[in-house]
Amino acid sequence: MHLKIALVIIYILVHLHWSCTEDICKKGEECKNQDVYDKTVTAIPEKLKDGADEIFFVNSKIPVIPKGVLSKNPQIKKIEFLGTSTHSVEAGAFEGLPDITTIEISGTDVTSLPVGVFKDLNNLQKLVLKSNKIHSLENGLFDDLKNLQELYLHMNEISSIEEGTFDNLENLLSLHLAKNSLRSVSTSLFSNLKSLKLFRLYENQLTALPDGIFDNLPVLEEIALQGNKISFLQPNLFPHKSKLKKLYLDNNLLTELQPDLFVGFPSLKILTLHNNQLTSLPNVLFGEMGSIAELSLSHNNLTHLPTGVFSPLKKLKKLDLSSNQFSIISADFFEGLEKLTDLNLIDSNIESLKQEDFKELKSLSTLRLGNNKLQSLPGDVFDTLPKLSKLYLDKNPWNCDCNLLPFYEWMKNNKHKIKSKTPEVCEFPKNLLKQSIISLTEEQLICLTTSPPTTPLLTSTVPMTTLHTTTASTTRLTSTTAAPTTTTALQTTTTPTPTIPTTAQPTTTQTTTTAPTTQLTTLLLTTTTLPTTTATTTAPSTTSIRTTVSTTTLEPTTAHLTTALIPTTSTTTVQTTTSATTTSTTTVPSTTAHVTTTVTPTTSTSTIQTTIATTIATTTILIPTTITSQKTTATTLPPSTTTRKTTPFLTTHSSFICTDSLQAPLSTPTTTNKYSSCKELMIYYTTMLLVEICCTMVLAKFTYSLYCSLEQRERLHTQVNLTHFSYTKSIILRPVDETETVAL
Q1: Is 23 helix (H, G, I), strand (E, B) or coil?
Q2: Percent of the chain surpassing pLDDT 90
Q3: Which residue, among 343, 308, 301, 344, has the nearest Cα to 326 in the 3D structure?
Q4: Among 430, 409, 353, which Cα is nearest to 385's?
Q5: pLDDT at 140
């Protein structure tokens, strides 16, 4: 509202300036026929300057224009009251002026005009009554203005016009009723204006137009209806189409347009339909319009356009489709627009574009695609636009990854064509947020790779045992359980690839572990498929581990698969007895994993067989409620040697394992680097933890000091309360004098 008032004031000031500089005498010119009165004038003088036929009152303090005040100056041809303090014009105010052709009363406080105020002004051609406070027009007000050609009543407060008000204006060419408060008009109100060429009703409160309102206006060239609340246009609203050049329908509430509504307008040059609520267009909307050069459909709710809807507009040069809801566009939208030079698609919700979308636009030189949802574009998307010289791409959420590389190259090679006011910047990924695309390098435009497939996680219900192997070996773990529900077997076999020589003392170890009766919880088995490796072992060892759990009650089991390795902590006592030596040779093959699950009602047998290359740590984690096991290992050695020792081969431990490091053989530089990276991360996180602890201690110290300070201040202001009161009364006896005895 404030903006509208400000615009009105600016308009008045500009008009006043124009009036004073164009119509009133210019500096250095002899203007004998003009007489100008400024703000010092408080009344219209009876006698004006000799020979003056154009009179101007600018900001004068004239409250009333009385009847016949100018009758002694019949030579007047033009009179204007601009910004005066006039609030009333009496009937017959301009009588006695037979030759007057122009009257203007603008920017005053006039609220109404009486019938007869323009009586006998047969030669009046132009009447300007704009920017006043007129609220209604009475029938008969303009009856004597038979030769009037221009009537300007805009920027008032007109809410009603009586029927027949314009009936005698048969020669009227321009009628300006814009920026008033009209809510409705009738067909008969304008039915006698057969010469009318310019009809302006914009920025009123019209919600509909009556049928046949333009039927008796055959020579109309301009119809301005923008800025109303019109929601529907009748199919035959514009019967006289041949001479119409300008049609303004923007800023209304139109939700649809009738088929063939704009067919048969051969002279139309300007058509505006922006700022409505159109959701679609009919298949046939336009006819042959050889003169139309601009078309605006911006700020609607269009999601799709019919094929070839614009094809009749052969000479269309500028098309504005901005601020709509297109998610994609198609070459069918622009069929037949060979001469289009400017296409505006700003803020149209566009998510993707293809090279074929613009193949019809051979003459396009300016393309505006800013503020859409484009994240990437093909490198050849604009190859069908040979004349493209101005491209606007700013304010899109660009995803700067490897998919943007082709278009990135195009941008680098066509910097001179990109005219965006702000540079195109990355929205994704976060490490490139707000960075200019042009400033990036190809190495920065990368795509994140997915992790390789891994062996799934197997869950069962057995006690926990941790196996840690650091030599090339074949291990068999067999668990026999009296279970009522589930039997699970995981078997891994390996076949040979690259060669890693290792040497070990040949041994054969038989280990038997017996676990006490216990209530079991959930087993979590983790295994990771390692890349193919070939190992040559001079004297590998073969170890067989058999675990028997007796009198075991199992909870209902659950099996699932994952790829994670879980650090565990447990305590196991291991005792090894060495007695004999045997020699064996084992070839380590490449890994092949098989998972087999069998459900039986009685006995469950779980077998895990794994072959692992030298220096690879394999951890099998079994989680029980209680973990206590006594291991006895018997080893066969030569007869001459018998040794009893504790072996570190079977241990339980708590460890942190970086899962990324198991995706490649440990003997490669890549694996070493990954282990180093894991170590650096551990050091970094430990350092951050220490810093956080220090900061917490400092904060605690500060809080404690503040508390002590407050306590000290409170003691200083503590008052002593009286809790005990003691009262003593004393009586002293003395001898009575004789005089006192007499008195008594």
Answers
A1: helix
A2: 51
A3: 301
A4: 353
A5: 93
Q: How far is Cα 393 from Cα 633, in angstroms, rounded to an integer? A: 74
For 22, which DSSP code?
Answer: I
Q: Which residues contact 732 (CB under 8 A, 6 or more apart)?
A: none
- Whether 612 and 474 have beta carbons less than 8 Å apart is answered as no
Question: In this structure, what token pair is assigned to residue 216?
Answer: 């008796």
Closest CA to 384 of 363, 409, 413: 363
User: Does the pLDDT at position 7 exceed 70?
Assistant: no
Query: Is 212 exposed, middle or buried, given 0-12, 13-18 or 19+ CB atoms closer than 10 A?
Result: middle
Q: Which two tokens stand for residue 89?
A: 């014009």
Q: At a CB cut-off of 8 Å and minimum separation 6, what does 87 contact?
A: 63, 64, 108, 109, 110, 111
- SS3 (DSSP) at 134: coil
Specify the residue for token string 């440990």: 666
Nearest to 588 by CA among 529, 536, 527: 536
Q: Is a pLDDT exceeding 50 seen at residue 488? A: no
How many residues comprise the chain? 744
Cβ neighbors of 281 (< 8 A, separation 6 or more) are 257, 302, 305, 306, 309
For the stretch 14-62, pLDDT in tens is: 454 444 444 455 544 446 788 999 999 999 988 888 888 999 999 999 9
Radius of gyration of the chain, Cα coordinates, nearest whole angstrom: 50
User: Cα separations (Å) of 300 from 274, 297, 370, 573?
Assistant: 7, 7, 17, 80
Beta-carbon contacts of 189 under 8 Å, excluding residues fewer than 6 positions away, are 161, 163, 165, 166
Q: Check: CB of residue 589 under 8 Å from CB of residue 462.
A: no
pLDDT score of 176 more than 80: yes
Q: What distance in Å separates the CA atoms of residue 152 and residue 167, rounded to the nearest whole number?
A: 16
Task: Using alpha carbons, select from 467, 471, 531 the residue that is nearest to residue 501.
Answer: 471
Contact (Cβ atoms closer than 8 angstroms) between residue 544 and residue 510: yes
Of 225, 651, 238, 244, give the one whose Cα is nearest residue 466.
Answer: 651
| Residue type, position 96, single letter | G
Q: Which residues pair with 222 in a beta bridge?
A: 198, 246
What are the C-alpha distances in Å from 298 to residues 225, 251, 421, 619?
17, 10, 21, 66
Tell me which amino acid residue 233 is. Answer: L
Which pLDDT value is given to residue 562? 31
Rounded Cα gap, residues 195 and 220, in angstroms: 8
Residues 6+ apart with CB under 8 A from 71: 95, 96, 97
Quote the tokens at residue 424: 């195109």
Of 513, 507, 509, the residue nearest 478 (C-alpha)? 513
- Of the candidates 176, 168, 170, 169, the one whose C-alpha atom is nearest the C-alpha of residue 151 is 176
List of residues 6+ apart from 391 with CB closer than 8 A: 366, 367, 369, 382, 414, 417, 418, 419, 420
Characterize the bridge pairing of strands 604-612 and 473-481: antiparallel
Q: How far apart are CA 378 and CA 385, in angstroms?
A: 14
Report the SS3 class of residue 632.
strand
DSSP-based three-state secondary structure for 170: coil
Cβ count within 10 A of residue 311: 16
| Burial state string for 2-20 with b = 16 or more CB within 10 A and e = fewer than 16 | eeeeeeeeebbeebbeebb
How many alpha carbons fall within 13 Å on the CB side of residue 471? 18
* pLDDT per residue as tens digits for the range 418-476: 999 999 999 999 999 999 999 999 999 998 765 444 444 444 433 443 333 333 333 33
How far is the C-alpha of 508 from the C-alpha of 581, rounded, in Å?
Answer: 7
- CA dist., res. 369 & res. 33, Å (int): 58
Average pLDDT for 499-505:
36
Q: Are strands 64-65 and 54-58 parallel, antiparallel or unpaired?
A: unpaired
